[in-house]
Amino acid sequence: MADFVICGDIGGTNSRLALFEVPAGTAQAKESRIGDLHHLIHSHNYKNDKFSSFTEVVQKFIVDAHQENPEVKRITISTACFAVAGPVSDNVVRLTNRGEWNIAAKELESSFGIQEVRLVNDFVANGFGLLTLNTHEYETVQGGAHNSEAPIALVGAGTGLGECFLTYTGQRYEAFATEGGHVEFPPRNEVEIELLRYLQKKFGSSSKPARISTERIVSGKGIENTYDFFTKYAPDEVDERCNREIWDQDEPAKKISMMAYDYKLAQRTMELMMATYGAEAGNVALKYLPYGGLYIAGGIAPHNMQYIKGADSIFLRAFHDKGRVASILADVPIRVVKSEDLGLRGAHVVAVRMLVDRQSVTGQRAPARAGVSPGAPGHNRSTAGSPAATQSPTGIDMATMLVTATMASVMAVLASHWIIKRL
Prior knowledge:
Pfam families: Glucokinase
Transmembrane segments: 398-420
Helix content: 25-40%
Number of strands: 14
GO molecular function, one term: ATP binding
Region (Disordered): 363-392
Organism: Monosiga brevicollis
């Protein structure tokens, strides 16, 4: 008998969803193995701009899953977890970068017959995702003295700067959200003091300086802010051709990073940003003493390892520059995450934990529906399997969900035609 779970990573731009079959006896497996033990039936990445609500995304996902594998309509979804880019309160969220999307777990449960839906902050999901990593999926930049039950911390710079931590309960790790990326930016030298003053005026005014967070420097936008500062601080070092190329890009930060090899101002930008990144990682390490591992995630670190690797790297020098307590940090394992799907993995972990918790409360599993064979074993995250059909005593099977999704899609099309005709 198998169970089925949906997991998703929902950002401002994209929604990535996956449907997994959880074969009997695998729900309590070590989390680093669930990607191999659970069969990926269907996954897809959707552009949010094409949908007016997240419910429509789930509807489309169900239709697509059925088209790829018709047996999907004969299963019931036990649990679902969605990692969302926004603060979650009472299992409801309004996405930070897509304010018109309100996502409510209860609405998803009733709309699609899913027995239990949970929404989690995206960086909390990243924290749970760490538990699925195998050694080839991260690069160790400081070995430290690993303790398998000590706290774990995660710092990740990309679009913004996220932080979370995990603690061991005696049975498993739990992840907790923070807003650590929004702590005050602490300048450590004269150039950084000038940067702070510049940003205070840029985001405030001369009469009312703005409060500046570390995220204003350590993020994609932070790279742009820092480069912009250097063009004013050191105008003689500006290369006009390079400067035009940078600001002509949709993502100037990537161009700045690429130009750092032969454009001095881009190099200074990346060095200052990575030093600030290392200093903040050191601050996080002092707060949580993460001898279970300090993980560096997000899009910036894996593409800029030249600033991180090596005992004398810019990142590690700033990390260890903690005065009287610097020696404490020598034993903290530091690992740079290479995997780009931590959020989806973490949502998978939570969905399976929900399944285990439900089974421990009810003391029973959902009975199997006859006539459908289980999926082939040995599939990994990128390989689809054939689902073993199950039907919950209280759930709605995927056939009903498919009809609901299809009818909703048809109604949406008819409504749009009616609106166009009226116009």
